[in-house]
From TrEMBL:
<dbReference type="InterPro" id="IPR001014">
    <property type="entry name" value="Ribosomal_uL23_CS"/>
</dbReference>
<dbReference type="GO" id="GO:0003735">
    <property type="term" value="F:structural constituent of ribosome"/>
</dbReference>
<comment type="similarity">
    <text>Belongs to the universal ribosomal protein uL23 family.</text>
</comment>
<keyword id="KW-0150">Chloroplast</keyword>
<comment type="function">
    <text>Binds to 23S rRNA.</text>
</comment>
<dbReference type="GO" id="GO:1990904">
    <property type="term" value="C:ribonucleoprotein complex"/>
</dbReference>
<dbReference type="GO" id="GO:0019843">
    <property type="term" value="F:rRNA binding"/>
</dbReference>
<keyword id="KW-0934">Plastid</keyword>
<keyword id="KW-0694">RNA-binding</keyword>
<keyword id="KW-0699">rRNA-binding</keyword>
<keyword id="KW-0689">Ribosomal protein</keyword>
<comment type="subunit">
    <text>Part of the 50S ribosomal subunit.</text>
</comment>
<dbReference type="InterPro" id="IPR012677">
    <property type="entry name" value="Nucleotide-bd_a/b_plait_sf"/>
</dbReference>
<dbReference type="GO" id="GO:0005840">
    <property type="term" value="C:ribosome"/>
</dbReference>
<dbReference type="GO" id="GO:0006412">
    <property type="term" value="P:translation"/>
</dbReference>
<keyword id="KW-0687">Ribonucleoprotein</keyword>
<dbReference type="Pfam" id="PF00276">
    <property type="entry name" value="Ribosomal_L23"/>
</dbReference>
Length: 93
């Protein structure tokens, strides 16, 4: 699970949960097949589709020097109906 960083919870990603689609940030060097294999192996689910896009790094200034953070990749993973990723379904109290 080295490639998957963390789950993303935005308005769009919460709306996509109703369509059995889960959003997470992954390492930029990871491929779709690697991520699909990791998700299916770790969570025991069946992935039917994966969409991804690269998000640019943000600019950061340190004194007179302008730098930037690393870019990263965001994956939207669609699961087969009847499957779900348990940690993202539980409600907080």
């Amino acid at each position: 699970m080295d490639g998957i960083k963390y789950a993303v919870f935005t308005e769009k990603s919460i709306r996509l949960l109703g369509n059995n689609q889960y959003t997470s940030n992954v390492e930029s060097g990871s491929t779709r097949t690697e991520i699909k294999h990791w998700v299916e192996l770790f969570f025991g689910v069946k992935v039917i589709a994966m969409n991804s896009h690269r998000l640019p790094g943000k600019g950061r200034r340190m004194g007179p020097i302008m730098g930037h953070t690393m870019h990263y990749r965001r994956m939207i993973i669609t699961l087969k109906p009847g499957y779900s990723i348990p940690p993202l379904i539980e409600k907080r109290t």
